[in-house]
Design brief:
Layout: E1 13-19, H1 30-47, E2 50-56, E3 60-66, H2 72-91, E4 103-106, H3 110-121, H4 123-126, H5 141-144, H6 153-157, H7 164-176, H8 194-205, H9 218-230, H10 235-242, H11 246-251
Antiparallel strand pairs: 1-3, 1-4, 2-3
Helix pairs in contact: 1-2
Length: about 250
């Protein structure tokens, strides 16, 4: 069947997602994250798009982007081709890395712009990787607080206040607020990979070494296992990473 045409945004602003093929990892170490950010920065000069927010997770990325002189299809082909060529060379692999078609949704008004902005910055929190947004190094949140980067921050900050100091305070409060925001995502199809799963286990259990879970008292262990299942980890994944038997996890 032919693909449905993408919905165009009258503002030129889109929330875009790109993921690894079959949900596979697209970042294996810090250098990989840094390389993609640099690649986005390089093509920003060429394609003249604006970036308002981003978050790089281990197997997918979110971007809040305004189309420039080149349409998004061209932009992501260029970014993807450049990053994948480098990634394959570095990791001695061949073939595709990204799913062949990015997902996008138009951002048509100020309210939804701010919703997407917060949704992107809270991605690591909702995935159980971090408890504090500012602790996650691969999102644009800390750029708004002063870190050098690729974001066009002024566009978003004027929604909060006219003066920068006041805008930043309101920005931080807004991004830390609990919510039920629903935006474009791969929630139903993305499998949590083992790198993210390990981080979730360590955070949920409050430990330094995953093997420590096996020494927990039964009640404490069972509570942790339930939380991990609620976070989206599969029984087989919990078994593989913690060493707790499949039958025990299934019973819990």
């Amino acid at each position: 069947m032919p693909r449905r045409p993408r919905e165009k945004s009258s503002t030129g602003i889109y929330h875009v997602m790109l993921r690894g093929i079959n949900g596979q990892t697209i970042f294996k170490d810090n250098e990989d994250y840094e390389k993609l950010i640099q690649t986005i920065a390089d093509y920003k000069k060429v394609c003249e798009y604006e970036i308002y927010a981003y978050c790089l997770m281990t197997n997918h990325i979110h971007l809040l982007i305004k189309e420039g002189k080149d349409e998004l299809g061209i932009v992501f082909r260029r970014i993807g081709a450049s990053y994948v060529h480098w990634y394959n060379w570095k990791h001695k692999r061949n073939g595709h890395l990204f799913q062949d078609r990015y997902k996008s949704e138009p951002v048509e008004d100020d309210k939804y712009f701010l919703t997407v902005l917060r949704y992107i910055h809270q991605n690591p929190i909702k995935a159980g990787i971090e408890n504090d947004i500012k602790e996650y190094p691969w999102s644009s949140y800390n750029e708004y607080l002063g870190k050098d980067g690729i974001c066009d921050k002024k566009f978003a900050l004027v929604f909060f206040a006219d003066d920068e100091k006041g805008a930043l305070e309101l920005f931080k409060k807004f991004n830390s607020k609990e919510n039920d925001d629903k935006c474009l995502d791969y929630e139903e199809s993305i499998r949590i990979d083992d790198i993210e799963a390990r981080k979730i286990i360590i955070k949920v259990a409050g430990i330094d070494d995953i093997s420590q879970i096996r020494s927990f008292e039964k009640e404490k262990r069972d509570k942790v296992i339930k939380k991990l299942k609620n976070r989206g980890l599969s029984i087989r994944q919990i078994e593989r990473l913690t060493g707790i038997s499949f039958s025990v996890i299934r019973r819990i």
